[in-house]
Amino acid sequence: MIIKQIRDITLIDIDENRYLGISCDSCGGIGEKEHDMVKAPTVIVGEQTAKVVLAELLSMGFEPLVLSDGLAVEMNDTGKKIIEGFNNTVNMLKHSKVHLTGSTEENMKTVQTSIGTTGIGIVAKDKLKFKKTSVEDLCIAIGLPLVGYEVLKNPDKIMSIEDFEIISRLDYINEIIPVGSKGAAYEINELCQCNNLTIEYKNDISYDIKHSGGPSCSCILSIEEKNLYLLKDLIDKPMEILGKFI
Fold first, then answer.
1. For residue range 46-65, what is the model confidence (pLDDT) as tens digits?
2. Closest to 200 (Cα-Cα) out of 136, 157, 133
3. What is the largest CA-CA distance in the chain?
4. Which of 73, 158, 199, 225 is an S-S bond match for 78, by CB 3.0 to 4.6 Å?
5. pTM, full prediction
6. d(CA 174, CA 138)
7. β-strand partners of 23
8. How far apart are the C-alpha atoms of 202 and 166, rounded to whole Å?
9. Helix (H, G, I), strand (E, B) or coil at 166
10. CA-CA distance, 49 to 117, in Å (whole number)?
11. Tens digit of each residue's pLDDT (9 = 90 or more) over 151-197
12. CA torsion angle 60 209 212 175 (round to 10)
């Protein structure tokens, strides 16, 4: 069995036709507990944290199967609110039935919200969205890179798990990368290295390519210019052409 890391996904070669994918993420200091640095409704924290690993799987073509929440908080009532958020996100998926499992901390009193999450999915090898970007493809950003209170104040500007599911099923999108804490410039550089390309940025982009993407509030993708109009009809979040791959 071959196991390797591709971007944020651990890829397991399970047979001649399929890969198993494992994605993980964490969230700490955001919630309603005494020592949380960002005060936010716990249900929303759960929703956004669950979105991250599911978005990573969907973006590479995986069908999510299992979502695990490792909650370093008590079940009553912080854990219940986080799990409600996880279920809200899972229930937004229209094409995947995801099993939710997890654990909580019942032995120690916790004073700060802390979540670890893992997602598992499966994909046919010929459907894996990796190393599919070509010369002359456009680099597009969808959503805005937002963190902390910015996320709470701008729900109409961040990508939902529904958005990720929609674009993951479009054959004319070559590759998708959720923007993580290192920002879009890092993700674009990774995409370029994988495909032996460089990028020619536009001179007047408004999207901050160095800003942390927060909980997968934004993504970058590669697409042929002739197909861009198809995408604009499907997603109602901010969308910007950042440049062209060369």
1. 999 999 999 999 999 999 99
2. 136
3. 58
4. 73
5. 0.96
6. 10
7. 9, 119
8. 27
9. helix
10. 8
11. 999 999 999 999 999 999 999 999 999 999 999 999 999 999 999 99
12. 0
